Amino acid sequence: MCGGRGTRLGLDREKPLVEIDGRPLVDRVAAALAASSIARSYAVTSPHAPETRKHVSLPTIDAPGDGYVSDLQYALERIDSPVVTVTADLPLLTGATIDAVVDSFEGNSMTACVPADLKRRLGVRVDTTMPGDGQQLAPTGVNVIAAGDGDRQVVFEDPRLAVNVNYPRDALVAEALLRSGVVR
């Protein structure tokens, strides 16, 4: 998913093209998907991100730009399930991390979560939480969407899933973690 405006970053460029340690967010996520067991990847773009659409090398699905959920639904109507969805704002993501999420899939839709406290310890913003496993959980931006009614949360204690770049400080944290070697 790479069609958002990125208004919370307060920049004059499209969020997927924001560089973290010299590389656009969308390229980092595309590389992680390529290194994973995922057979086919698509970039879901929108009219809000025309430069991103030109930039990506993946096949694209051009969503209307009516918001994340609406654009996701638009894309899901064009692809067979199950589908792994990944937001373009996860610069620390790796193929192995994506595979860990996929390996947790049990047939029903699932949301990959991290403890909200992990995000706070790393110094990134926590926008959304939900209760689970006796703690507050934060969705990561990686999900598996499958046919059926079930949905479950799977908790990962992985900083690679905890750092979404939504605010300028989040970008600084991601760069610091990459440069420090804490995550590679």
Task: Explain the overall architecture.
The protein has 184 residues and is α/β, with parallel strands linked by helices. 32% of the residues lie in helices and 22% in strands. The protein has helices at 25-34, 50-55, 68-76, 95-103, 116-122, 159-162, 168-180, and strands at 19-20, 23-24, 43-45, 60-62, 83-86, 109-115, 130-132, 135-145, 151-155. A hairpin with a 2-residue loop joins strand 7 (130-132) and strand 8 (135-145). Helix 1 packs across helix 4. The longest helix has 13 residues, at 168-180.
Please state the structural category: alpha/beta
Q: DSSP helix count?
A: 7
- Content of β-strand: 15-25%
Low-confidence stretches: none
Total DSSP E strands: 9
Give the proportion of residues in helices: 25-40%
Q: For the residues shown, what is the average pLDDT?
A: 91
The H/E string reads: EEHEHEHEHEHEEEHH
The outline comes out as globular
The radius of gyration over CA amounts to 15 Å
Biggest sheet layout: 5 strands, mixed
Cα(first) to Cα(last) distance is: 22 Å
Please supply descriptive tags for the structure shown above.
alpha/beta, two-stranded antiparallel ribbon, five-stranded mixed beta sheet, 184 residues, 32% helix, globular
Please describe the topology of this protein:
Elements: E1 19-20, E2 23-24, H1 25-34, E3 43-45, H2 50-55, E4 60-62, H3 68-76, E5 83-86, H4 95-103, E6 109-115, H5 116-122, E7 130-132, E8 135-145, E9 151-155, H6 159-162, H7 168-180
Helix pairs in contact: 1-4
